[in-house]
Predict the structure.
Amino acid sequence: MLIKRASDIQPSDITSQDLFLHRRDFIKKAGLGSIGAVAGAAGLLSFSSNAQSATKFSGVRKSPLSTDDKQNSFKEITTYNNYYEFGTDKTDPAKTAGSLKTRPWTVSIEGLVKKPRQLGIDDILKLAPLEERIYRMRCVEGWSMVIPWVGFSLSTLLKQVEPLGNAKYVEFVTLNDPQMMPGVKSSVLNWPYLEGLRLDEAMHPLTIMALGLYGEELPNQNGAPMRLVVPWKYGFKGGKSIVKIRFVAEQPNSAWMRAAPSEYGFYSNVNPTVDHPRWSQASERRIGEFLKRKTLMFNGYGNQVAQLYTGMDLKKSF
Ligand SMILES: Nc1nc2c(c(=O)[nH]1)N[C@H]1C(S)=C(S)[C@@H](COP(=O)(O)O)O[C@H]1N2
Ligand SMILES: [Mo]
């Protein structure tokens, strides 16, 4: 019988939710009994138990906004993370974010809006059909990944509250809970982690709230239960584990701007011609690749987003 061992099944083999479910089906039908004696059965067991640990989404639609760049593996995406609330090492969040409880979870949408609302995460999940958005992600540190997010356009969520005319920006606030987040005892950043977008950036169809990746609920280290994803900006704009969305009149002062204003601007558009004061932004290392790639303006999303910035000096508004 031809059967792949679990260790041979790379998450990058999984091209869609359907295929993933079929494979689980296949594993079930194959029956562990019949392969119990085959070398590698233990691996298969652990694969099928992993497959049960996170909730799989069904009916996730493919999006024409996805890239066809090769996806990073589930393992790469979930073990090499920045999430300072869980430590500053890339390997910390995968080890320590298990302490984050993501149910119950309420998101407050407030500020300059006609109808402020508090929405439970399970109601948010039902607001719109889930889409797979495979995006190139570029960290300001000089590495990049391709991540198959599951979510929907942020605009879907923002329209729930009817923003007022004087709302010009949107703030995103991460949970700040010292009980569940060991890293917030350190003063490396001013907590809570706060990020912001101009209203037109927030409403842009590429901007999403991600609720999952690789067809299943977000792992905690990637920002469960809901995190922002803005693919033409540096990764830090994508605040994780969001509890508050606030419409405001003035440009927000993000956590990174407060920490180092000369290094991190409000816009933080990926821009190979504007170096970070301490390093070049001209190229990047795609995790898993050996040779560096050239970094693209707006992370390669210029056709879709450049018009948001016409008339602006992107060297000043970095
Ligand atoms: N709350 C919070 N959100 C955060 C961060 C963080 O430290 N805290 N790190 C940011 C940075 S620098 C990056 S590159 C991305 C990484 O997201 P990923 O781990 O899902 O790839 O999350 C961003 N969102
Ligand atoms: Mo980053």
Residues 47-309 form a domain with the Sulfite Oxidase; Chain A, domain 2 fold (CATH 3.90.420.10). The radius of gyration is 20 Å.
